[in-house]
Write a structure and sequence with these properties.
Elements (H helix, E strand, L loop, with lengths): L1 H26 L12 E8 L6 H5 L15 H8 L1 E2 L2 E2 L16 H17 L6 E9 L2 E9 L5 E8 L3 H14 L10 H17 L10 E6 L9 E8 L11 E9 L18 E2 L2 E5 L6 H5 L12 H13 L3 E9 L7 E10 L3 E8 L6 E12 L8 E13 L10 E14 L18 E13 L3 E17 L2 E17 L5 H6 L1 H8 L1 E13 L10 E11 L1 H9 L13 E2 L2 E2 L3 E13 L5 E10 L1 E2 L43 H7 L8 E17 L2 E15 L12 H6 L12 E11 L4 E11 L11 H5 L2 H12 L7 E7 L4
Parallel strand pairs: 1-5, 6-8, 9-11, 9-13
Antiparallel strand pairs: 2-3, 4-5, 7-8, 10-11, 12-13, 14-15, 15-16, 16-17, 17-18, 18-19, 19-20, 20-21, 21-22, 22-25, 23-24, 25-26, 25-27, 26-28, 28-29, 29-30, 30-31, 31-32
Helix pairs in contact: 1-3, 5-6
Length: about 800
């Protein structure tokens, strides 16, 4: 088995090196694939343009003659797959990379004209741009030379708004919206912005039939022949031909649901409802929806002034109900003299039930396994857009060392089943708030059962029930509050587990074998989650607190119970001890947009789990502890295989003891992880999707806050190594690096990352920098490690497959 793995590694490395050499050669050979009369554009320069406009001016250079970056592999990849017989192919083009920029004089002239127009729009009314082409050895350089002339400035501002109400409305909002002021450089984008803002204000204040063309500008003195570089602007808001602009109120709203996802058939007549309640007529031809849960999110209220913001809000919330695939809002007037517009909201239902199967194959040098899950979803289970979700998930993990066949030595089995119902409103006793101005509120009732078996060690069963409220303060600020979180744990140690193993692994055995319950609450605050899929610079924050046991502790004291948790006499509820702890956690990220589709992300993920009161002796429950590693953490390690601290399983001299601990999660009561990732696009068109890349560095570990929480209480040296100490912080950090690919199919992102260990805290001194071993003497190092740590095996490289971005 080991020889087979070595063969695979050699083949992978050889293939990667060969591909790199081929791409490197292709990078220098584009000119040999073109005809003798053709040239490849290697450089484009724009001279004498103000620095603040250079990037925008370059965007007017036609894409087909823009050279690729010197560091880009797009053209080499294209050359590798799209050349034949010494020429570029004209058919059967493979979706790899992008073709080189071949010189085209027509595109050069178009680019020159567009750059000149751009400069004129920015106030350089006398601008002239010329182009020159230099060719040598089938390589071309294009130079655009600009003579911008003087910048024209706005000297006078005036307006002509005959409608008094509109003029007053504009004047009252002008200070907040305008980009125009005396002395500024003339800029057509500022005029467009002003027009758009006036249009928005009109549509927000009842002017239903107001159109953008009603707003225009008179520009005086802007002719290139003008002797002065001063410009006078006059804003016009014209009246329609048939009179003045009028404000409109909302009449009634007719909400109509189509009979099925195919929409409204033309050949069948349906009888519309005539019942009006609070200005809304509700007709459901599908007979699948209750009235109140749907009309609750119609913000076009009878008698109110028409406001396009309410129209957009109605669109957003009806789509967020996740039961309609199409929402369309039309308006009509009963007669031409009425100042009311009646809304017709047409809703086409989508498929209610879906089923999704997911799986993954986690593996490393010594284990292989799989997880398989099925999720059934019903988006309208009680005819009110309530989302019901049932998930069943199971998995196995097996040792594969020493020539064993896969799944012949299964040491871990997991099974879980969970159900939840999410209602699109806040269900609070004696209070029924209708929120939704910034996002759809939800109430979620959930229940789950988890079964986990560790061969020859333990069986754990967990039953969890919770109620959670989610609501938006603003579009960027989400609150999530769980006032009730009940957890029941029932663990059993295997009766055949070795007594010495239990003694040496006392803390871990206590965690796995404990029987208790948890009653607590959670709160999470999330900032800027709505920006995660955007290319912009912002800060993301997700901070939460999980706290439990305080209320039960208070009840226990009020009932007169006298207990001594520090001496193994905890208070009990229903015959079981209850957990008491606090667990704050924070995920802080900085997203920096670097232009185009390039982005840098810096992340800090930290948390602490602190047991006190009734749990001062028993500590934090197994499931509430932290782990490091995995596809969303330190990616050079498999999940749950780092730390805590400097923990090194090789110090266990007994092979029997090491085998007993094999596969047990390495956990801690404190975690600090940082990630630095550079993201970029590799290919825009790659088998119908976008192929993106990433390069990353991950740093972090888990620790215990105090002695006695370590994996090996009976071994004082190891217990000491797991405790967090600021003086040892640097030497206890794991460091990994790597690269990855993301296959983005719009709705899903399939991710593959390759992580390489740089620094491993289980070793000491200079031996921690295992990258030196990887570069020289890797085989001897791994053989020595495997001999002293078996059945664990060492891997320098970790592969991670996943769906979605890592963070």
């Amino acid at each position: 088995m080991k020889a087979y793995q070595n063969s695979i590694n050699i083949k992978l490395k050889s293939t990667a090196i060969l591909l790199f050499i081929i791409v490197l050669i292709q990078a220098c050979s584009s000119t040999k694939y073109i005809a003798d009369y053709q040239s490849i554009v290697k450089k484009v320069t724009i001279d004498s343009v103000d620095a603040k406009f250079e990037e925008q001016a370059y965007n007017y250079v036609q894409k087909d003659i823009r050279p690729a970056s010197k560091l880009s592999i797009q053209v080499p990849l294209y050359n590798l797959f799209n050349t034949k017989d010494g020429r570029y192919k004209t058919s059967d083009i493979k979706p790899f990379g992008t073709p080189p920029a071949i010189l085209d004089s027509t595109l050069v002239e178009i680019s020159r004209t567009q750059i000149q127009k751009f400069l004129k729009s920015k106030g350089y009314r006398q601008a002239e741009v010329t182009s020159a082409i230099k060719i040598a050895d089938k390589k071309a350089e294009i130079v655009f030379s600009a003579k911008p002339g003087p910048a024209y400035l706005i000297d006078k501002l005036s307006d002509s708004i005959p409608n008094t109400n509109i003029k007053n409305l504009y004047e009252s909002n002008k200070a907040k919206i305008t980009h125009l002021h005396k002395g500024m450089q003339y800029d057509e984008d500022s005029l467009t912005y002003e027009r758009e803002q006036i249009y928005r204000i009109m549509k927000e204040n009842g002017y239903f039939y107001f159109l953008r063309p009603y707003v225009n500008f008179d520009v005086y003195g802007a002719e290139p022949t003008s002797k002065t570089n001063k410009i006078d602007l006059n804003l016009n808001v014209a009246n329609p031909n048939d009179g003045e602009h009028k404000q409109f109120n909302i009449g009634y709203t007719h909400m109509i649901i189509a009979p099925n996802p195919d929409g409204f058939p033309d050949s069948v007549r349906y009888k519309l409802s005539k019942d009006t309640v609070n200005g809304i007529i509700f007709t459901d031809f599908s007979k699948r929806y209750r009235r109140n849960p749907i009309v609750r999110y119609d913000f076009l209220k009878q008698g109110e002034l028409y406001d396009i913001r309410n129209e957009n809000l109605t669109y957003d919330r009806l789509y967020e109900l996740n039961i309609f695939k199409n929402v369309k809002i039309d308006y009509f007037r009963r007669d031409s003299t009425s100042n009311k517009v009646n809304a017709v909201i047409q809703l086409i239902p989508q498929k209610v039930m879906t089923n999704r199967v997911e799986g993954e194959v986690p593996f490393n040098g010594g284990t292989v396994g799989f997880t398989l899950g099925n999720t059934y979803t019903n988006n309208n289970i009680f005819r009110g857009a309530e989302r019901f979700e049932l998930q069943v998930k199971g998995g196995l993990q097996s040792r594969i060392g020493n020539g064993a066949k896969p799944f012949s030595d299964i040491y871990q089995r997991d099974f879980s089943i969970s159900a939840s119902i999410t209602v699109p409103r806040l269900m609070i006793p004696f209070y029924n708030p209708v929120l939704g101005g910034n996002g759809m509120p939800h109430t979620t009732f959930s229940s789950s059962y988890i079964y986990a078996l560790q061969k020859d060690v333990s069986v754990r069963r967990i039953f969890i029930n919770s109620i959670t409220y989610d609501w938006f303060e603003t579009k960027s600020k989400l609150h999530s509050f769980t006032p009730l979180n009940f957890e029941y744990r029932f663990g059993n140690l295997d009766p055949n587990v070795d007594a010495q193993t239990v003694l040496n692994n006392l803390y871990y055995s206590t965690l796995l074998g404990r029987k208790d319950l948890t009653l607590g609450m959670k709160y999470t605050y999330t900032l800027n989650a709505n920006k995660l899929n955007e290319y912009r610079s912002f800060v993301y924050l997700r901070a939460g607190m999980d706290i439990a046991g305080n209320m039960l502790q208070g009840i226990s004291k009020l009932s007169g119970n006298k207990n001594d948790p520090a001496n193994n006499d905890p208070a009990k509820i229903l015959g079981l001890p209850f957990n008491q702890y606090m667990r704050p956690e924070v995920d802080l990220r900085w997203y920096k947009h670097l232009g185009g589709e390039r982005q840098f992300v810096a992340r800090l993920n930290a948390g602490v789990a602190y047991a006190y009161g009734n749990s001062v002796l028993t500590g934090i429950p197994f499931e509430k502890q932290f782990f490091a590693g995995g596809s969303s953490g330190i990616r050079a390690w498999q999940a749950r295989t780092i730390g805590p601290g400097n923990y090194d399983r090789g110090l266990l001299r007994s092979d029997t003891l090491r085998r007993a601990f094999f596969g047990l999660d390495q956990l801690g009561t404190m975690r600090i992880e940082t990630n630095f990732e550079y993201r970029f696009t590799v290919a825009k068109k790659f088998f119908g999707a976008t192929l993106k890349g990433a390069a990353f560095v991950d740093i972090g570990n888990v620790w215990n806050l105090r002695k006695g929480e370590s994996i090996l209480v009976a071994t004082p040296t190891l217990d000491e190594q797991t405790v967090f100490k600021l003086s040892k912080f640097a030497q206890q950090l794991a460091v990994g690096t790597g690269v990855g690919l993301r296959y983005d199919v719009q709705y899903f992102v399939f991710r593959f990352d390759v992580g390489l260990k740089l620094k491993d805290p289980q070793f000491s001194g200079s031996d921690q920098w295992v990258i030196s071993k990887f570069l020289s003497g890797a085989r001897d190092f791994k053989d020595t490690y495997n001999a002293t740590h078996g059945p664990d095996t060492y891997r320098f490289i970790q592969y991670n497959f996943g769906i979605g971005m890592p963070f």
